[in-house]
Write a structure and sequence with these properties.
CATH architecture: Alpha-Beta Barrel
Number of domains: 1
Number of helices: 10
Mean pLDDT: 93
Strand order of the largest sheet: 1-2-3-4-5-6-7
Low-confidence stretches: none
Strand content: 15-25%
């Protein structure tokens, strides 16, 4: 939702997220505690949370934060299990996304990790531009490995490699996951891919073959980061992932009726 210029009414967000909560996903990234000036679409996250019925779902909630202030607000809500923080290995994107340099963001991660532990939550760090960037900033698998080591040293237990602009090559995806997953058994690695429809399956295949089992998706592939380049590149579609997992014999048990209902609602809201 965050990249859309048209403001989605709070009641529609609640209705859509409520449908998603009935499907059976492990985690739902439901909102962001970020600057309303920077991301006006997320200004009503607290109101959205208040409208969600969590009594009949096992799905856990994740909220994105961009600084300590946002994390402090998110920690006041016991319903939230995860705090998500975007840490970019691209200096340009980190400045665009959080208005901090990489060096300035490192102590933020440390403080968020401590805050999450204190409040019984788990910090999820997204290594944005984890497979390269369009800005000419230095990138290599070694750079990603170095930052992974830094995050592990701070106690981060969930690390999601993010292909923020959809340019990741399957070879790089497989190489990174195959190298990092066995090296850091204490970390659960995830894949946060943006991709054009024709590139989705190849990225999933590469990550899966290397041992990745945590994937971020959106229904019908809607989404995109408004701070990356000048265009929105959609997320991997949930439907694509589910079809891929079915082929691997690893499809999760989901409420298919709720999935269809949520998909219809997504079409009405986002199309």
């Amino acid at each position: 939702m965050q990249g859309l210029s048209l403001q989605i009414p709070t009641r529609q967000k609640i209705a859509y997220l409520s449908k998603l909560l009935r499907i059976g996903f492990h985690t739902l990234d439901f909102g962001s505690f970020v600057s309303p000036k920077a991301v006006p679409q997320m200004a009503d996250t607290a109101q959205v949370l208040a409208g969600l019925d969590l009594t009949e779902t096992d799905t856990e909630l994740l909220a994105i934060v961009a600084n300590v202030r946002g994390a402090r607000e998110a920690c006041t809500f016991p319903e939230i299990s995860y705090l998500g923080y975007p840490f970019s290995v691209s200096e340009t994107f980190q400045l665009r996304n959080t208005r901090r340099t990489i060096a300035e963001s490192v102590p933020v991660v440390a403080e968020l990790q401590e805050m999450a532990e204190t409040h019984g939550k788990t910090l999820v760090v997204y290594l944005s531009m984890g497979f390269g960037n369009p800005y000419g900033d230095p990138w290599s698998p070694d750079i990603v490995a170095e930052w992974t080591d830094s995050m592990a040293g701070m106690g981060v237990s969930i690390l999601s490699l993010a292909d923020t602009v959809g340019t990741a090559e399957p070879e790089d995806i497989q190489r990174l996951f195959a190298e990092l997953i066995p090296r850091y058994p204490e970390i659960r690695f995830g894949a946060h891919f943006h991709a054009a429809p024709q590139a989705r399956v190849a990225k999933l295949e590469a990550a899966w073959a290397a041992g990745c089992r945590r994937f971020d998706t959106t229904l019908q592939g809607y989404g995109g980061c408004p701070f990356a380049k000048d265009e929105l590149v959609g997320n991997i579609a949930t439907e694509t992932l589910l079809a891929f997992l079915a082929e691997q014999g690893a499809g999760p048990t989901l409420n298919t009726a709720a999935l269809r209902a949520a998909s219809r609602l997504a079409t009405g809201i986002f199309a």
